[in-house]
Amino acid sequence: MSAADPNCLFCKIVAGELPADRVFEDETVLAFKDIHPQAPFHCLVIPKAHVATLNDFTSQEAAVIGTLLLTAKRIAGDHGLPGYRVAMNVNREGGQVVFHAHLHVLGGRPLKGALG
Ligand code: 5GP
Ligand code: ZN
Which of 86, 60, 62, 63 is nearest to 74 (CA)? Predict the structure, then answer.
């Protein structure tokens, strides 16, 4: 993890330089609605510190990954989602477009279909 990257879209959202529909934040993570929702509920959970991909987390930062997942659980509960999907795309080949690591939290309808 590193200081904010001035060229990173999600670092700009963390800093408040770009708007976002925030649903949760604490000292470690920020969650906001995805601008192109793929389900009735679709938000992103990101570390506030810049990390490009899951591959860039070190074992010393494992607690941050845990906090991202527990935040997904908390948000799903806060929004009354009886079930939901959590996904993380890693690198271009994994479908990642924004290189500040993030979890997708999707729900609001029964989720079926292929993951890949
Ligand atoms: P990825 O493909 O990198 O896993 O997902 C990036 C996600 O970020 C996409 O679902 C996309 O809709 C979302 N996104 C891209 N730009 C913005 C933005 O400026 N604001 C918000 N709220 N979401 C964004
Ligand atoms: Zn960033």
Answer: 86
Cα separation of the two ends of the chain? 28
pTM: 0.97
Q: Is 79 annotated as catalytic?
A: no
97 lines ligand 1 (CB under 6 A): yes
DSSP assignment letter at 50: B
Whole-angstrom distance, CA of residue 55 vs CA of residue 78: 29
CA angle (39, 33, 92) in 5-degree steps = 75
pLDDT in tens, 28-79: 999 999 999 999 999 999 999 999 999 999 999 999 999 999 999 999 999 9
Cα 47 to middle of ligand 2, angstroms: 9
From 61, 111, 63, 53, select the one nearest 86 (Cα to Cα): 111
Smallest-distance ligand from the CA of 8 = 2
Please give the single-letter amino acid code of residue 91: N
